[in-house]
Design a protein that fits this description.
The chain contains three helices and nine strands. It is an alpha+beta fold. The mean pLDDT is 89.
Length: 129
């Protein structure tokens, strides 16, 4: 389950639960893509917005992911992890910098510019040693 607010200052938010999702004034393309995936039998598991607002987001389902306007390094890491057979669980961005992000999968994680204390918590809670 996740709940996210769009960083553009709008009253835009998304809540994802085991039973589906609820959007309030999301980017139109995100909402359409979420509905397409659900209609194709996917379960939406995560949504993340990089700082700066606009039509920029990362959408994760139980079968795939779709990134729009995220940093290239984040997109490439997500794509590479998925191509390696890993299930993407979440993507997160620091509220202050789109170049600070984390991709967590069922087998590993990759952080860019994430504070050491945060990375240590990911290692602890995910059991990666």
């Amino acid at each position: 389950m996740c709940g996210v607010f769009h960083p553009g200052g709008e009253e835009t938010w998304t809540i994802v639960t085991n039973g589906g999702f609820v959007n309030h004034i999301p980017p139109a393309e995100l909402h359409a893509r979420m509905n397409e995936y659900v209609a194709a039998g996917h379960k939406v598991v995560w949504v993340a917005f990089p700082p700066g607002g606009g039509n920029r987001w990362s959408l994760v389902t139980d079968k795939t992911f779709f990134n729009r306007g995220v940093p290239d390094t984040c997109h490439e890491q997500t794509k590479d992890r998925r191509a390696a057979g890993e299930q993407i669980l979440s993507v997160a961005f620091a509220p202050y910098d789109a170049e600070t992000w984390s991709v967590v999968t069922d087998k590993a994680f990759h952080n860019q510019n994430v504070p050491v204390e945060c990375e240590q918590k990911i290692i602890f809670w995910r059991g990666f040693c």
